[in-house]
Design brief:
This protein is α/β, with parallel strands linked by helices. Helices cover 42% and strands 12% of the residues. The chain is globular, with a radius of gyration of 23 Å.
């Protein structure tokens, strides 16, 4: 009798272990799986970029509408939050929250991780007339390696602003320069990881590179599209169309 009881308890223990193991696997799966495009439901537009790129002006253009007045802007020191104007007909199928994060490194780092968790689309502005490849590469690398951006597959629209300026460079010129800079940053990360013998040196998702260890935006893990634009001249129609294309729930 004692032997039978011991055997039964042993079988129960094995059964409980199996059940617990299955539960752990299920929980880990749902916590770590990459959501599909259809599961990305946020319509929040997160406007990012370095200082003087034109972020705050773009924010006011979106919030006040195609022919709305915009205030005189300076480099913002606060996070601006609003809703896209219904005058943008391609975005008018529902509310579109818009958030503009300051370009200063310290200020943006306070807001970026939490806001990226809520974003549906990221709009990244760069100054195509006074282009600083290191500064732009640093910020784009930060964005592209955020776990929330990669895990939620948040699309990124890169706007090469100030196309009306005589010194402006086109998206065709800037894209390969940024790819080269991001390749270098990816290699530096790999070296730092090897030195520390710890895989990743911080909480980032390493960039994917090709067989030549070079980064290409088409292999970024998320959709990245470039567009030339002049926020100052209010030439936003092509940008709004691009934004609507990536907007969840947009018909």
């Amino acid at each position: 009798m004692d032997n039978i009881l011991i055997d039964n308890w042993g079988l129960m223990g094995v059964g409980i272990s199996v059940v617990v193991g299955l539960l752990v696997i299920i929980v880990v799966y749902f916590l770590t799986r990459r959501p599909s495009e259809s599961s990305r439901t946020s319509r929040l537009v997160l406007v990012l970029g370095n200082c003087n790129a034109g972020k705050t002006l773009l924010y006011w253009r979106l919030v006040n509408g195609p022919r709305g007045l915009v205030p005189k802007t300076v480099s913002s020191q606060i996070v601006n939050e609003g809703v896209a104007h219904r005058g943008w007909k391609e975005l008018a199928t529902g509310l579109v929250p818009v958030v503009d994060i300051p370009g200063h490194v310290r200020l943006r780092e306070l807001a970026l991780p939490g806001q990226a968790d809520q974003a549906g689309v990221i709009v990244y502005l760069l100054d195509s007339a006074q282009f600083d490849v290191r500064a732009e590469g640093e910020y784009l690398y930060r964005i592209l390696t955020l776990p929330s951006v990669q895990n939620r597959e948040i699309p990124i629209v890169v706007l090469c602003n100030k196309e009306d300026h005589i010194m402006a460079r086109s998206k065709e010129e800037l894209r390969p320069l940024l790819e080269k800079e991001l390749t270098e940053r990816s290699r530096l990360h790999d070296v730092a990881s090897a030195v520390h013998h710890s895989g990743d040196t911080d909480d980032i998702v390493p960039l994917e590179v090709d067989e030549n260890n070079e980064f290409r935006f088409e292999d970024a893990g998320v959709s990245v599209e470039f567009s030339d634009i002049s926020v100052k001249m209010d030439k936003l129609d092509s940008f709004v169309s691009l934004l609507a294309k990536h907007m969840p729930g947009q018909s």
